[in-house]
């Protein structure tokens, strides 16, 4: 399992781009994780699924509300990672009004999630293999803090906890 001091696993995440520009086309665009994190401080939070109750009512809204505070703490970007496709993540981002605040990064095949060792088996609930709920600060591709939730909990991966860690880093 991924731990503090580890480099993020190599791979690709996708983001649905709403406005063409900066070398990105409309629709799903792939981003190399190593290149996207190089030289940056990134707040990453992951969750079991788009449009699910806790994720939509608490997890994403907390990061959207604190986006400016994260920037003030030196965080370059905030990423939400979920085992959903880029189209779903794009629709969820529109619904949650994340534009310019939180990048909605799709891990459609769970390749990144499996590489981190932070998977959650929700097959019995009809949701397949998903991500555990967690948050982390990543500096130049290296994990500096990692907060993994106990199953069914939402206590340590919230925006306020990660923001406090970003201010202390």
From TrEMBL:
<dbReference type="InterPro" id="IPR037944">
    <property type="entry name" value="PRX5-like"/>
</dbReference>
<dbReference type="GO" id="GO:0005737">
    <property type="term" value="C:cytoplasm"/>
</dbReference>
<dbReference type="GO" id="GO:0045454">
    <property type="term" value="P:cell redox homeostasis"/>
</dbReference>
<protein>
    <recommendedName>
        <fullName>Glutathione-dependent peroxiredoxin</fullName>
        <ecNumber>1.11.1.27</ecNumber>
    </recommendedName>
</protein>
<feature type="domain" description="Thioredoxin">
    <location>
        <begin position="2"/>
        <end position="168"/>
    </location>
</feature>
<dbReference type="GO" id="GO:0042744">
    <property type="term" value="P:hydrogen peroxide catabolic process"/>
</dbReference>
<dbReference type="GO" id="GO:0034599">
    <property type="term" value="P:cellular response to oxidative stress"/>
</dbReference>
<dbReference type="Pfam" id="PF08534">
    <property type="entry name" value="Redoxin"/>
</dbReference>
<dbReference type="GO" id="GO:0008379">
    <property type="term" value="F:thioredoxin peroxidase activity"/>
</dbReference>
<comment type="function">
    <text>Thiol-specific peroxidase that catalyzes the reduction of hydrogen peroxide and organic hydroperoxides to water and alcohols, respectively. Plays a role in cell protection against oxidative stress by detoxifying peroxides.</text>
</comment>
<dbReference type="InterPro" id="IPR013766">
    <property type="entry name" value="Thioredoxin_domain"/>
</dbReference>
<keyword id="KW-0676">Redox-active center</keyword>
<keyword id="KW-0560">Oxidoreductase</keyword>
<feature type="active site" description="Cysteine sulfenic acid (-SOH) intermediate">
    <location>
        <position position="55"/>
    </location>
</feature>
<dbReference type="InterPro" id="IPR013740">
    <property type="entry name" value="Redoxin"/>
</dbReference>
<dbReference type="InterPro" id="IPR036249">
    <property type="entry name" value="Thioredoxin-like_sf"/>
</dbReference>
<keyword id="KW-0049">Antioxidant</keyword>
<keyword id="KW-0575">Peroxidase</keyword>
<comment type="similarity">
    <text>Belongs to the peroxiredoxin family. Prx5 subfamily.</text>
</comment>
